[in-house]
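Supplementary Text 2. Reproducibility record for the structural model of the 181-residue chain.

All settings were left at their defaults, and a single model was retained for analysis rather than an ensemble. We include the record here because the model underlies the residue-level annotations in Supplementary Table 4.
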Amino acid sequence: MGFLSLFKNRSENEIQIAESKVEHYFNFPNFTAEERERITAAKNLTQKKDFNKAYDIYFRLLSQIEDNEANKRKLRYIKIEIGQIYMYAEKWDSALQAFAEAIQDENSVGNPLLHLRIGQCAYNLENARIYEDNLSRALICGGLHIFENERNEYKETALKLLNPPACGWKKYQGIDYSATK
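Retained model, structure tokens:
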């Protein structure tokens, strides 16, 4: 049994939906061929729910890529994937830490998925200050679409905190977050 042995029966479909959100809200960085191969292997292991091995691959990659300006997007992407794995295992503190590190890149603030993930982790840790702020940001940046296939209480929390735009939330599409991808 590994550190992610408390996995909470996420279905393959739930994992696939969560991973497809990462692909939608983030551009795949310019990894080397070897790095891409390792990421593909980690993603395949994630789909098979072998989270310990997937985490090990991501963690080794994280430690092997030099932390500099040229590699910021690579490191952010890996931290997001590590955060996702922790979320699948409902290890909210560790997931929050990974996503909080990922959003430190100045081009990441305003990314709807990062704000959603931080908000979800804080919600499950009952940290109202952080979840209210980040779930609201997720709604403002991504519109209602960001909450598709997520637990309804996340969306309802954000909707209670904010007044709707003039067009209403159903028509609101969010902001242009392309710089945060």
